[in-house]
Amino acid sequence: MKKFFQEIKADIKFKSAGPGQKLTESAGEKAPKERPNPPALRQPRQGPTDEAQMAAAAALARLEQKQPRARGPTSQDSIRNQVRKELRAEATVSGSTEAPGTNVAPEPREEGSAHLAVPGVYFTCPLTGATLRKDQRDARIREAILSHFSTDPVAASIMKIHTFNKDRDKVKLGVDTIAKYLDNIHLHPEEEKYRKIKLQNKVFQERINCLEGTHEFFEAIGFQKALLPVPDQESPEEFYVLNVAALAQPQSLERHKEQLLHAEPVRATLARQRRVFRPSPMASQFDLPGDFFNLTADELRREQRLRAEAVERLSVLRTKAMREKEEQREMRRYTYTLLRVRFPDGCLLQGTFYARERVAALYGFVREALQSDWLPFELLASGGQKLSEDENLAFNECGLVPSALLTFSWDAAVLEDIRAAGAELDSSILKPELLAAIEKLS
Q1: Secondary structure class of 367 (helix, strand, coil)
Q2: Strands, E, within 107-206: which ranges?
Q3: CA-to-CA distance for 252 and 190, rounded, in angstroms?
Q4: Tens digit of each residue's pLDDT (9 = 90 or more) over 235-271
Q5: How far apart are CA 90 and CA 98, in angstroms?
Q6: Nearest CA among 31, 37, 29 for reference residue 19
């Protein structure tokens, strides 16, 4: 039995020892195993070729068109920043400055570029007729008003009061007080006390002295400064005293008062920059300058507040009415809009508008360009939405910001009446002088 167990142990030891071993060798005398060869160094992976990158970008673009993307930032500045980051990341990976096959719209070029739909936002000075850039308008209007003092000091001082002072409530209070002074002179021409205005008077200091242009107005209508004695006071004080020549013409004082009461601030008017283009497949493509997107300090603060509200809204269920209200608020953030109208012959009429202007302004703009400006017509927005000339809607309320392409069509009843009379509309709808300056849309 003992021999039997020894044979079994020897057999197990033989099987577990492996090749090249003797049964008489101990476990500590085993020959060292042969080390495996170290793995060969891995070759660096070659980057995809240009053709592979283009194919991958095209496939990604098709996939993005099929699948709705998550809604990103809504403001133009944040959109441009996001696009710029994506382009930089792609350029770092591919080693090139452009990512082929992407559907990202190019960033608006600088002013002066030949490819811009409009060079910028410009204004017209109502006093000189000069065309001004947005950053020039306030300074140029101030210069024009000051230069007007040499020809008409009364009108210039009135313009200065209403234009240079931004607080409209203070202006109204000061103007009403001046009008009261002049009314007292007109109603009581024999009373000497109404022809004198004490400059240190509390009412004068709080309501009139704080406004630019008021002293120039008093001097222009016939008041002169004088030091006069004051009862129960040792030292004299300064007064405005109406001179005899102005007192002899009370109708002039009344006219100046009415001018002061009904005047409005001098504001530069937005230049339409009307242009006419030949028919082009690029009619719906708008490359806008930065003037259409720049935000003021107030707009930046409002943008930050809206973003905070947007984060809060993500956790709240919203009704359809709430979503529509938010969309309208987004549209109101634009200041200007560039609109094009395509005519039946394919020609395009382009103009710049305030985003808050009414649809009637566009109808008037188009009517000025028509040969038959007395015939009624219709304007259709994208999706077939008909814009009514009498509709009291602004462009931002109609979704026509910051740019839009509209379609012109004659009123159906007008066409029917013309055909019934056996007549035809002129093939050229626009005025000849506009067609003479027609351009190519690049």
Answers
A1: helix
A2: 122-124, 131-133, 196-198
A3: 17
A4: 999 999 999 999 899 899 999 999 999 999 999 999 9
A5: 8
A6: 31
**DSSP state, residue 211:** S
Q: Model-level pTM? A: 0.64
Q: What is the DSSP letter of 439?
A: B
- Contacts with 21 (C-beta within 8 Å, 6 or more apart), sequence order: 30, 31
Maximum distance among all alpha carbons in the chain?
A: 156
Q: In this predicted model, which residue has the larger pLDDT, 422 or 283?
A: 283
Q: Which has the closest alpha carbon to 256: 347, 183, 365?
A: 183
Q: In this structure, what token pair is assigned to residue 343?
A: 């005519």
Q: What is the pLDDT of residue 313?
A: 59
In order of 50, 78, 293, 302, 303, the CA distances from 299 in angstroms are 43, 13, 11, 5, 6
CA 390/CA 359 separation, integer angstroms: 8
Distances (CA, A) of 401 to 177, 273, 286, 324, 439: 43, 17, 11, 16, 24
Q: Are 128 and 269 in contact (CB under 8 A)?
A: no
Cα–Cα distance list, 338 to 79, 185, 328, 355 (Å): 19, 52, 18, 9
The alpha-helical segments, DSSP class H, found in 148-188 are: 153-164, 168-187
Amino acid identity, position 43: Q
Per-residue tokens: 21: 């071993």
Q: What angle do CA 398, 401, 403 make, to 5 degrees?
A: 125
Phi first, then psi, for residue 286 (nearest 5°) are -120, 120
